[in-house]
Structures are given as structure tokens and as C-alpha cells.
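thought: user wants a sequence for this fold. calling inverse folding tool.
action: design(structure=
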């Protein structure tokens, strides 16, 4: 399986257009080693010919152009076969609108995600007015096959984050299927990638889905739970926004250190996260645990 990181930042990218935090300042003025990043998305393929996008970010046009394997062939024939959505957040779905020139889009997502896109953001009705959309229901626990010898199994990622949009008479608290992780398996090698860019807690159920994978791309949004609050940039903690922090005794790094995956990579990095600074103590701590920090253009093969 071929894995290409198209974008590795959280919503807003790095640097974020309206932010002057220490990390954004450093990448702008070059005062510390750091690399700009676009918003989170990954491309995977089992044969190098048929590709699937994991989320469609607002930077999708730039990302597709940056990776020759995703450029069109024979007129307007695209090697992008489908898009798998982990949730209905704008930074993971707005890119669908930028793919509206397609002759047809196949999109996989849960019923909860579809409800938001239809009646909340109304992104899906807008998209279908431009091109045919083949919506495929991603049922947690059910396996589906992809072109190129891959298969995927979605799994529910519990979240207490309050839903921004209420749908179907709901109270905004949401339920199962709001956030999804994907376990993608290569049928020839049996090796698996787990894509988990948004996770509030590494529960026993979520940890079980990670077990035995060869590569893990996991939520690295913030270093500390109160990161944005301390910087005076927000009034909510990382967990309140749906993301387990990396550091601390109850952070994800302590849990990942002993995981026997061949590659463990933090992605979906918020612009405030000090691991973005390549000379930071936090970056050294991550490396010491055998975990990597994703950067746009990163390639892996499992």
C-alpha cells in the first residue's frame, strides 16, 4: 500500500492566516526551523494507479497538483476513485465542492455525516447540482472493497464535542457515526493503515481498532489540553474540541510509545502545536518515543 500525505495541518493550515502565535510567527519569519503545511488529507493506493482520498480539504486543488500521481490522464480522467470522510467538519469536506467538475464522485461516509452534509452545511445538495454523487454508506464494523486490492473498515470514534449543526430534530449532542476512523488493509500483504485524525479519547474500543496495524496516522492537534486557552486564542480545551492532546500522563504519546506499529505518525497538527518547530523539546520528546510528525508530501509504503 502506498500512502501519500497531502496535507498535515488542522483546520486553517500552518501558518493560519489570522494567527500570530509563536509557531506561526516562526514559520513566517524563518526564526526557527518549521515547514508550512496545508490542511489534513491523505491519498492511499494499492497499485499506484487507483487512489482514494481520506477527507477532502479546502486545499485539495493545490494538493492534487502537488502530487503527480493524482493528476488527470486521458482528458479529464482522474485517478481519484473515491473520498472517505471521517466526519462532516468543513476542513474535511469543503474540498468536495472544489471537485465539482468531476464526471462523478464516489463518497463514503456514515449516515450521521451524510445528515449534516444534507441538512446542516447543505454541502451535498450544492455538490449534486454540479456533478453526480455516488454516496456509499460507511457502516462501522462493515468491510468494503476498493480498487487496487485495498479494503477498508470504518469504526466509530466516540466524541462528546457538541455538534455545530443539529439535524433530523436532534439536540446537537450527536451520536454514533459523527466521527469515524478507517482501517485500510492491503489484500496482498495483509498490512493495514489506520487513519485517525480526530479522536477525543483513546478508549479501549478505539485502541483495539489500532492494534496490529503497520502504520498509524493519528490526531496530533495540540500538545497540551489547555494550549489554545493559555495562548489566549480560544476558550475551549483540546479535548472539548474533540482532540486528545499529545503530551502529559494522560496524553496520546504515553499510549503510543509501546505500540508495535512500524510507523506511528502524528497528523492534523494545529498551528499552535510546538511539535511543528523542529528544534523544540516537544518535537524531541515525540522522536524519542519512536513517533513521527507528518509533513506535506510525506510518503510511506507498507
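)
observation: tool returned 302 residues.
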Amino acid at each position: 500500500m502506498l500512502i501519500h500525505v497531502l496535507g498535515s495541518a488542522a483546520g486553517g493550515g500552518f501558518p493560519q492566516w489570522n494567527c500570530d502565535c509563536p509557531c506561526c510567527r516562526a514559520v513566517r519569519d524563518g526564526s526557527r526551523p518549521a515547514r508550512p503545511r496545508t490542511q489534513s488529507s491523505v491519498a492511499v493506493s494499492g497499485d499506484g494507479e487507483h487512489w482514494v482520498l481520506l477527507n477532502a480539504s479546502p486545499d485539495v486543488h493545490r494538493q492534487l497538483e502537488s502530487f503527480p500521481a493524482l493528476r488527470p490522464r486521458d482528458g479529464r480522467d482522474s485517478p481519484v476513485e473515491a473520498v472517505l470522510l471521517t466526519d462532516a467538519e468543513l476542513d474535511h469536506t469543503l474540498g468536495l465542492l472544489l471537485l465539482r467538475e468531476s464526471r462523478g464522485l464516489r463518497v463514503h461516509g456514515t449516515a450521521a455525516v451524510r445528515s449534516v452534509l444534507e441538512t446542516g452545511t447543505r454541502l451535498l445538495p450544492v455538490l449534486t447540482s454540479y456533478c453526480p454523487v455516488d454516496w456509499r454508506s460507511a457502516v462501522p464494523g462493515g468491510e468494503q472493497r476498493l480498487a487496487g486490492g485495498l479494503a477498508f473498515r470504518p469504526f466509530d470514534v466516540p466524541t462528546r464535542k457538541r455538534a455545530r449543526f443539529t439535524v433530523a430534530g436532534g439536540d446537537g449532542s450527536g451520536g454514533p457515526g459523527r466521527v469515524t476512523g478507517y482501517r485500510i488493509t492491503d489484500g496482498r500483504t495483509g498490512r493495514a493503515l489506520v487513519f485517525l485524525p480526530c479522536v477525543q479519547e483513546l478508549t479501549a474500543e478505539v485502541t483495539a481498532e489500532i492494534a496490529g496495524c503497520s502504520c498509524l496516522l493519528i490526531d496530533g492537534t495540540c500538545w497540551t489540553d489547555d494550549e489554545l486557552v493559555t495562548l489566549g486564542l480560544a476558550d475551549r480545551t483540546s479535548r472539548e474540541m474533540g482532540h486528545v492532546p499529545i503530551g502529559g500522563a494522560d496524553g496520546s504519546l504515553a499510549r503510543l510509545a509501546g505500540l508495535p506499529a512500524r510507523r506511528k505518525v502524528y497528523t492534523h497538527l494545529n498551528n499552535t502545536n510546538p511539535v511543528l518547530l523542529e528544534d523544540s523539546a516537544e518535537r524531541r520528546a515525540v522522536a524519542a518515543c519512536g513517533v513521527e510528525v507528518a509533513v506535506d508530501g510525506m510518503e510511506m509504503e507498507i
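thought: summarizing for user.
answer: Here is the designed sequence. The chain has one domain: 2-301.
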